Amino acid sequence: MNAIICLIMRRMRIPLLVLLTVYVLAIVGMTLMPGLDDQGKPWQMNFFEAHYFVSYMGTTIGFGEIPYPFSNTQRMWVIVSMYLTVIAWIYAIGTLLALVQDETLRHAIVENRFTRSVRNIHEPFYLICGYGDTGSALVRVLEKRLIRTVVIEIKPERIDMLIMENYPVYVPKLCADASKPNYLVEGGLKNPYCAGVVAVTDDSFVNLHIAITSKLLRKTVTVTARVDSYDVAANMDSFGTDFIINPFVIFASKLQLALHSPELLLLRNCLSGYKTSCKPLNPPQSGLWILCGYGRFGKAVYDRLKENKKLRLVVIEAVPEKTGFPAVECIKGRGTEADTLQQAHIEEAVGLIAGTNDDVNNLSIVMTARALNPNLFVVIRQNLADNQIIFDAAKADITMQPSQIIANHIRVLLTTPKLVDFLRLTKQRGHKWTHQLVTRLKSVLNTSAPDIWEMTIDEETTPALWEALKNQLINLKCLQMDPRDRDNILPCLPLLLIRGDEIIQLPEETECLRQGDQVLWCGKVGASSWLDWTLRDPLLLAYLSTGKIAARSYVWRWLESRPSKT
């Protein structure tokens, strides 16, 4: 606010001085001009009368001559004053209009409004730096869970896109360079309700600046940053960035998982919400795979696939002199031409990965390859979210969209971090156990998309359960009962129970709960609301645990407590 006032006063200083000078001259002149009163005696205005007359003369020019008709001398001075004040007002108003349109002032006003909005947030929120494909997808998924976000984006057109979005909760936004520390502070970095900073701009070095600034100004804040360079990732890791997200590495690990353990990948995609339909991919686990593009994405995929001895890899790269040559057969070309694909033995291939940084080339590679070998398992890289329609029409077996992968991965880390622990433990269980879990989840969810949530037994979020555990034993089966009818079971399943250092995967329904336990749940959308009702309502919890319906009215409770007369 001080900056806005200083800017206004600096720009309006000369116009205001001109107005003040003109009005002082006009008022003093009116007091000096001789006139006659109603009796013909000499008369001059005092300062109050002159000030009153000049004030309405300079703005309206139409109230007449007061308190007596003016002399010709006075009227002559009124004419001079009239033109002076009009010119002064035109100059002042013109300067004011130019000031209103000044970009610096408008930005200062927007920045001040943004700072006030962030300061008035009194619930946990995340500071999102960058509102491109990744940032918009992340804000969208967080807002669906009613998690507050604050956005800083340097490109005005992206801020305009955010303004047009109809989010359920207002999102404060600022068009500024998030790498500058003062904008991060204005965005709520030092706000005690700031739960974390997410740097997902298009520039890895900007993300590095954001991560360093966040950790220096507030060491305890959770920092999540996107990178596409191993050097930048190593730099971030050196000063304690909590989560370093490389979309190419994440996708390469998922592709490797699809080849080695498709059931685990299916479970991972379903629980994390990455896919709405949980169908197994079943990619060919042996044979010839052709990798088109040996840039950052291609190298990440190559490093993972080369570990599989059953796979034979052929790389197609347009400029191998810049990217480097892999340790396998390398064909120079883009892969959009039939000749290049034929040199890579496309007729023998079982899988194709179109991973260049150009969406048009990737689509062309897929169409040309399918014309030569219709039975290919196709993996395609989608660089821009705006091309979703044409990529859907391509009907690739796997579509890799970096922004969506990053947004979904960060959402899981921020909202359900226990899910990461569960998937890590599941990986150690083996294929048979994973298959049984997938079958069990399908029976609970049917065809619905899963909803994942975490529960901590404490006095604030689960008051009814917290008090009940002081006097009685309550197991997981009790919480899974439907509050509307305890004979029915809610469509939900406990995935993980954490009790101190003890971690129980898929706990039995007979497992008794304790204060401080943490439970990871999976169920249909809406099941969490019914469960939350149980955790907060002591009478409902008593009904589910004992089968007895307790009266809610104090009068009925008093009547029930009275001894019956026999």
Task: Summarize this structure as a short list of keywords or feature phrases.
single chain, 566 residues, alpha/beta, Helix Hairpins, Rossmann fold, 6-stranded parallel β-sheet, 50% helix
Protein described:
There is one protein chain. The chain is an alpha/beta fold and 566 residues long. The protein has four domains: 2-101, Helix Hairpins; 120-245, NAD(P)-binding Rossmann-like Domain (Rossmann fold); 251-415, 3-Layer(aba) Sandwich (Rossmann fold), CATH 3.40.50; 448-546, 2-Layer Sandwich (Alpha-Beta Plaits), CATH 3.30.70.1450. Helix content is 50%, strand content 17%. It has 24 helices and 20 strands. Strands 5-4-3-6-7-8 form a six-stranded parallel β-sheet, with helices on both faces. The longest helix has 31 residues, at 2-32. The chain is flat.
Low-pLDDT parts are none
CATH class category name of the largest domain: Alpha Beta
Provide the gyration radius in Å. Answer: 36 Å
Number of domains: 4
Largest sheet: 6 strands, parallel
* Structure summary, number of beta strands: 20
Strand order of the largest sheet: 5-4-3-6-7-8
State the helicity in percent bands: 40-55%
Secondary-structure arrangement, i.e. CATH architecture of the largest domain: 3-Layer(aba) Sandwich
Distance between the termini: 78 Å
